[in-house]
Design goal:
Oligomer: single chain
CATH class of the largest domain: Mainly Alpha
CATH superfamily of the largest domain: Tetracycline Repressor, domain 2
Number of strands: 0
CATH architecture of the largest domain: Orthogonal Bundle
Strand content: under 5%
CATH topology of the largest domain: Tetracycline Repressor, domain 2
Number of helices: 9
Shape: elongated
Order of helices and strands: HHHHHHHHH
Number of domains: 2
Length: about 200
Amino acid sequence: MSVLPNRDRQAERREATRREIVDAAWEIARRDGLAAVTLREVAAMIGMRSPSLYSHFDSKNAIYDAMFQQAWTLFLDEQRGRLDHLPQAPREALLEIWQYFFDFSVADLARYQLMNQRSIPGFVPSEAAYAPSVEVMENLITAMHRLGVTEQDDLDLFLALGGGLVDMQLANDPGGDRWRRQIPRVLDMFADDIGLPGPPLRRTP
């Protein structure tokens, strides 16, 4: 007769409640903006009194911290599978990297703002929450080195161009693809500038 390990049901319930709190905070942020998240509204949304939240999160910033970690962990989990199956051609591989980041970003404004912009005054992610984003960047740098992008200035420019296109899309054409269509053209200009081999992504007639 096999003996199953004892389940810590109290810990499971506590973790389920924490997830429910974070989910409620995301719902508020997506509806009204990140700054609109309050302990009172989060508590009301899940049928809990505000003081009870402190047994799970000691502050509103602690909830933001959990949201930040959750968002970057999701990106990291999806990134791992994608970077192992990139096209051989460097420009096509960079295109896939960039388009995925773009699509992930524009799919959720509140998530993008929390992950990539200093949108919450006084909020600084904890070391544990920040760790997935560090791993994402390490994975990206490793992949780009394999593709021939090795200079730090070039890596910085690649990130700045990608973030700029996302910002323009979210600010000026939410739900559209006006700036997504520019990705191949911008990538060709970037690749030409650093001497990355072709063929070009933007075909000419």
